Automatic annotation (TrEMBL), chains A, B:
Keyword Phosphoprotein annotated: no
Gene (UniProt): nudC
InterPro entries xrefs: NAD-cap_RNA_hydrolase_NudC, NudC-like_C, Nudix_hydrolase, NUDIX_hydrolase-like_dom_sf, NUDIX_hydrolase_CS, NUDIX_hydrolase_dom, Znr_NADH_PPase
Residue ranges of domain Nudix hydrolase in the record: 160-290
Similarity comment: Belongs to the Nudix hydrolase family. NudC subfamily.
Cofactor(s) listed in the protein's UniProt record: Mg(2+); Zn(2+)
The name this protein goes by in its record: NAD(+) diphosphatase
Length: 302, 302
């Protein structure tokens, strides 16, 4: 049975918050939304805080820390939703769990998406206190969807950054059984393999970036790149662009600066790993990673 | 006859320069490449300079201006290719043609791509002299594919920025003739229409960004978004992600802050414009714009 890309469980997508973009530029409307009904997303450092039911915890704007910047996330259930950029986030004193993934796994898909979008935006503000052009301090604008340089001589406008990243399943043409190229980074737990990935650089199409990454990391020439599915990834703030490509030769030359290993795996091996078989030849990335969903799509491809 | 996305003429793609990414981190290899054989891309401000044959003009590293930063573009025909970030570019004194598009139209596809990638990278260096995190000066690293904060207390690493932008053809389901939604910005010349477009924001998939833009700019609800083709766009440094989507209702509500007009056009009307008919109902974007290529693909869709 085929799995359509739209049937995949793409984590961090599908937030119920309406971004209400038109309100960002309407200063008086935005101010009017900051009443007692307004909701403030509560964070521990950059990690989500959960309520008693395992959902995202929300407070009111009265819970914001002194000196915090307030960003407008959008509207949900008739209420305006905000998040704060707490001073500790840019002063280096922010505390939060070292690994927030166990917390994220507990969230509903909608909450995960709302958190992911807010985290990426708040994090951007915390890391962009100054103008990259002239070095002067910047200040929040347009409800948190812009920062402006405070130097009258510069006045540069800065926008939240999203880094496009290609991530790809390379399939070996003519193999007796469908066979896919996966790699492992040195930091991965033992036996863990995932799809190869890399940032899109200036001057590249998606398809060119896919081919370059595969060649660089594994010495494999890819052809016929096709887009499958995308995912926002808030660590730090990427747009993961999931693709499929074909390779004609099984020969691999691993770039040891990037990868610990890269290997071809058969559908049988990947399927066993997907089923959680303890004796499987590899371990897969968790389900909220787009690589996991790409492999689900590939297994069902028939 | 169908036009496959791979048959389209995607401008700024397909540079013959091999990025040779492995050399960026190899300081001694990079130094060794900076000999008399090395080629320096010559620019007027941020515009290309042409040689007598209408090709990109190249000099040697001896042509670099005093104080310029040198970025490594890659290898071509056995020679190392560089570009310079001239001090005038960040000091505000850079001179170049106001409109470089006539110049670009003269270039071969490969030269256009080489120029586009170099322009986006050089421009990024010129606009990122300081650390966005702490405001200290930054310095070029890894052959120009990174900038590092010079403050020992910060040491933040910064990477060339690429902004993902969705650009979409929205087609009206159930129309008697294939019909597409196009809009015009106030700055467009009279009668010029193009595909709607907008930046992907943190927390969105490509498909969500497409649907949001169409809703925001034209009040049209889109479904079944599919990816068609992508393009690097060096003004400033975007990754254009070309998509198709369907709409079920012809009703349009124009966001006058964004658009001067948005209308449905039939295939006949678009085909006449594509043929350069002076009496056509609209004028199309130039062929090096992805919107033009998306419309070519759509016309041939059958």
């Amino acid at each position: 049975m085929r799995v359509k890309p739209t049937d995949l469980d793409i984590a961090f997508a599908g937030s119920p918050v309406d971004r209400a973009d038109r309100l960002r530029t309407d200063a008086s409307a935005l101010e009017a939304l900051k009443g007692p009904q307004a909701r403030l997303l509560l964070l521990d450092g950059l990690a989500p805080r959960l309520d008693g039911q395992g959902a995202l915890a929300w407070g009111s704007l009265a819970d914001a820390e002194p000196g915090a910047e307030i960003v407008f996330l959008g509207l949900m259930d008739g209420a305006a939703c905000f998040a704060q950029v707490a001073p500790a986030l840019w002063q280096g004193g922010a505390k939060g769990p070292r690994n927030m993934f166990p917390l994220l796994s507990a969230l509903s898909p909608g909450d995960m998406a709302t958190f992911g979008g807010a985290k990426a935006l708040v994090d951007w503000h915390a890391r962009h206190r100054f103008c990259a052009r002239c070095g002067s301090p910047t200040e929040l604008a347009k409800g948190g969807w812009q920062r402006n340089c405070t130097s009258p001589a510069c006045k540069a406008e800065h926008f939240p950054r999203v880094d496009p990243v290609t991530i790809m399943l390379v399939e070996l043409a003519g193999a007796p059984e469908p066979t896919v190229l996966l790699g492992r980074q040195p930091m991965f737990p033992p036996l863990n393999y995932s799809a190869l990935a890399g940032f899109v650089e200036p001057g590249e199409t998606i398809e060119e970036a896919v081919a370059r990454e595969i060649e660089e990391e594994a010495g494999v020439r890819a052809r016929d790149v096709s887009y499958v599915v995308s995912q926002p990834w808030p660590f730090v703030s990427s747009l993961m662009i999931g693709c499929h490509a074909w390779a004609d030769s099984p020969e691999i030359t691993i770039d040891r600066n990037e990868l610990d290993d890269a290997r071809w795996f058969t559908r049988t091996e990947v399927a066993r790993a997907m089923d959680g078989d303890a004796d499987a030849a590899l371990k897969l990335p968790p389900r909220f990673a787009i690589a996991h969903q790409l492999l689900r799509w590939w297994l069902a491809r028939g």
